[in-house]
Amino acid sequence: MDFREAVLQSLNSAHKQFSPYKLLYEQLTHLPLNRPIYVFALGKAAYQMAEAVLYHADQEGFIRIVGGLVIVPYGHAKKPLKNLTILEAAHPIPDEKSLEAGTAALHFLQNLKETDILLVLLSGGGSSLMEKPMPGVSMEELIRINKELLSSGVDIEVVNTERKKISALKGGKLLKHVRSKVLFIYAMSDVPGDKPKYISSNPFLPDAEFADDKMSQDSFHRFDALTSHRHMPQDKAIVYKIIANNRSFCEVFKNCALEFFQNLNSDRIHVISTELKGESVKAGREIADLARLIDRERTKGFSSFKTPCMLVFGGETFVNVRGSGVGGRCTELALAAAEGLAELSYCSLMAYATDGKDGFCDAAGAIVNNFTKQALQDKGIEIAACLENNDSYTALHAIDATIPSEFTGINVNDMVVLYIQ
């Protein structure tokens, strides 16, 4: 089994173990029995999270879902969901449907009764899907600011902080419109450090009361030991729990890879970091540099990592937009790494967006190896020129190195896998 087949099978297995059906099951048992529960789901994983809640409600019967609103990106809704209204809007730049979703959210939340239980299912991407500009901010200005932020190369914390300033819903502002006195918020984190004030620009928790990030102090190194926190703002009881993050996905992937990479044991697969960030090209080159270092060390009889080995990195980089090509964070990182990997005997790398959509291109990521550079040159494609034009997807797609886009049902940043044989 070659690297591409083995790593994709490992991913498929990881997604099955990491599905919202499994992530939410235990959490739902903590909801009040025999009380009407309303669902509000927002983000890239909103549809699958809401679908999982309905499934468990029907199968187990321990909760009663009586209505709700689900806001997702275009194309994410597979079919109607019982008792739930589904709205689609744009991502990552808001559009008129985002405004309609914002209006619908306000109407839905304001019409709940104080005795109703509100179950919020939150995931990344909600910042653009639901919007209402602050007074004096036009839709045109809001779109312009979002485009400038996303192309500026700043990290997601800065982007979402600036988004809150021009939004009447973000930064906890939506909470004042919620009539329910009891809220359960289950969030899938797509931000570094899992800070609630940045996930979907935090519509439900007052930023000022969480300025010290006291909810994100726990360690997230174990899949079954994620944090929960109780808070009482404005006479409301709120339970906020991170049910999934990048670290937990990387650990699940590591365990799944043991089945398909039979030449590796648990001591040969290392989750190096889940803080991968910075410019995609720089990150790709640095990971390739690490691969070359390991290769040089082993030729001298010693190595930081015994080979064969697999190194796993999680996080989220950014694309510094200079050209007019087609690509995303993962394809650009992979293409940049391919240059350095060309010098090695056998080494492969996968860069993968866990939500199944790498930026604006039709891919979930890409897989490259030490033969990629030559394969591109055989087609007259130069890596440096493609990176300068931000055309990584076009280059890698030409040699069948991209991973097809798909809706995975999760959104916990990106993962990079380096395999040295």
Structural commentary:
35% of the residues lie in helices and 21% in strands. It contains 13 helices and 13 strands. It has helices spanning 3-17, 20-28, 46-60, 96-110, 126-129, 139-151, 156-165, 246-260, 280-299, 329-341, 372-378, 383-388, 392-398; strands at residues 36-42, 64-73, 84-89, 117-123, 182-188, 228-231, 237-244, 269-276, 309-315, 347-353, 363-369, 402-404, 414-420. The longest helix is centred in the C-terminal third of the chain and has 20 residues, at 280-299. The radius of gyration is 22 Å and the shape is globular. Mean pLDDT is 90; it is low at 209-233.
In short:
By secondary structure, the chain is an alpha/beta fold. It has helices at 3-17, 20-28, 46-60, 96-110, 126-129, 139-151, 156-165, 246-260, 280-299, 329-341, 372-378, 383-388, 392-398; strands spanning 36-42, 64-73, 84-89, 117-123, 182-188, 228-231, 237-244, 269-276, 309-315, 347-353, 363-369, 402-404, 414-420.
Total DSSP E strands = 13
The neighbouring-strand order within the major sheet is 3-2-1-4-5-7-6
Tally of contiguous helical segments = 13
Task: Determine the fraction of residues in helical runs and give it as a percent range.
Answer: 25-40%
**Secondary-structure content class:** alpha/beta
Largest sheet: 7 strands, mixed
Q: Could you say which overall geometry the principal axes of the C-alpha atoms support? A: globular
- Runs with pLDDT <50, length 5+? 209-233
N- to C-terminal distance: 13 Å
- Give, in order, the helices and strands: HHEHEEHEHHHEEEHEHEHEEHHHEE
Q: Radius of gyration in whole Å, from Cα?
A: 22 Å
Strand content: 15-25%
Mean pLDDT: 90
